[in-house]
Design a protein that fits this description.
Radius of gyration: 22 Å
Helix content: over 70%
Strand content: under 5%
Distance between the termini: 14 Å
Oligomer: single chain
Length: about 150
């Protein structure tokens, strides 16, 4: 229930913040008028179904694995969009796009590697091995697991 409220408040504030920016970017009011047909249908489909589906998937991911994973994989959507536009639409891929995709992929890999090491250390600490230097060598993760935060 809490994740639904967080998603709602997030979407509400994104809509509130996007109104003045959109009005500043396009001050011609006649361009804001929706004409019946494919344009209106595509705007409604994008606004209702695609955005709701995306928000639901992100909320599910936060509930399943925690916010770190969702925030980590979100920039990869840019990489997927660039790859799909090159494959299906025939758009050009520039060197900057490829280098940016490689940097984003390396960042995602680094975060996943770090999370795997953190879970490995946590599992080793839970195994019950206690020694004389336990307090000095005990590592505490900076970001607590999502399941540990629930009360």
């Amino acid at each position: 229930m809490v994740s639904t409220i967080v998603v709602f408040v997030n979407n509400l504030f994104m809509a509130i913040l996007s109104v003045p920016v959109s009005l500043l970017a396009e001050s011609n009011m006649s361009s804001w008028r929706l004409r019946p047909g494919v344009v209106a249908a595509s705007v409604l489909y994008s606004g209702i179904f695609a955005f709701s589906f995306s928000s639901g998937i992100h909320a599910w991911g936060v509930r399943l694995k925690g916010p770190v994973y969702v925030a980590t994989f979100r920039p990869l959507s840019i990489v997927f969009a660039a790859a799909m536009s090159a494959i299906f639409l025939g758009d050009d891929l520039y060197l900057g796009s490829v280098i940016g995709a490689l940097i984003l992929s390396a960042g995602v890999y680094a975060v996943l590697w770090g999370k795997a090491k953190e879970e490995e250390i946590t599992c080793d600490d839970d195994s019950g091995s206690s020694g004389p230097g336990l307090l000095s060598s005990h590592k505490v993760s900076l970001l607590q697991s999502h399941s540990n935060e629930e009360m």
